[in-house]
Amino acid sequence: MRRALAAAAWAWTLAIFVFLWMPPPPPPEIVWPWWDSLVHTGLLAAFGVLWTWHGLGAVRVLWLGAAVGAVTEIGQALLPWERHCSGGDLAFDLLGVTLGWLVAGRPWRRRQ
């Protein structure tokens, strides 16, 4: 089970980079201003869940999520197509990984 979780966590981490660095899709017909933020939050929430379930501690999950968020944002600034580096996106990445860790790690549950 642990190997499967590790494979899933690594695959999802790679998918985040691919998704956030690929050429952007055409703009949707209906524009929702928070869509990009929701995508960043969701991607990193799943990241936080998978790495927490894999067994990484809270500090490592949160730092690793922060590093992935920062690298993807810096990488977007360097791409030849239209992607933008954004501090707001990084903030939503951090929110997502924190929510993922909270859901998966359930730090509020009583230890026995």
Summary keywords:
mainly alpha, single chain
Summarize the helices and strands and which ones pair or pack.
Blueprint: H1 2-21, H2 35-54, H3 58-78, H4 87-105
Helix pairs in contact: 1-2, 1-3, 2-3, 2-4, 3-4
Descriptive notes:
- The protein is mainly alpha-helical and 112 residues long.
- The protein is built from 4 helices and no strands.
- The model has no long low-confidence stretch (mean pLDDT 90).
Roughly how much helix do the residues carry, as a percent range? over 70%
N→C terminal distance: 24 Å
| Order of H and E elements | HHHH
Give a short account of the largest sheet. Answer: none
Question: By helix and strand content, what is the structural category?
Answer: mainly alpha
Total beta-strand segments = 0
Q: Beta fraction of the residues?
A: under 5%
Rg is 15 Å
Please state the overall shape, judged from the principal axes of the Cα atoms: globular
Residue stretches low in confidence (pLDDT < 50, at least 5 long) are: none
Q: Mean pLDDT across all residues, rounded?
A: 90
Count of alpha and pi helical runs? 4
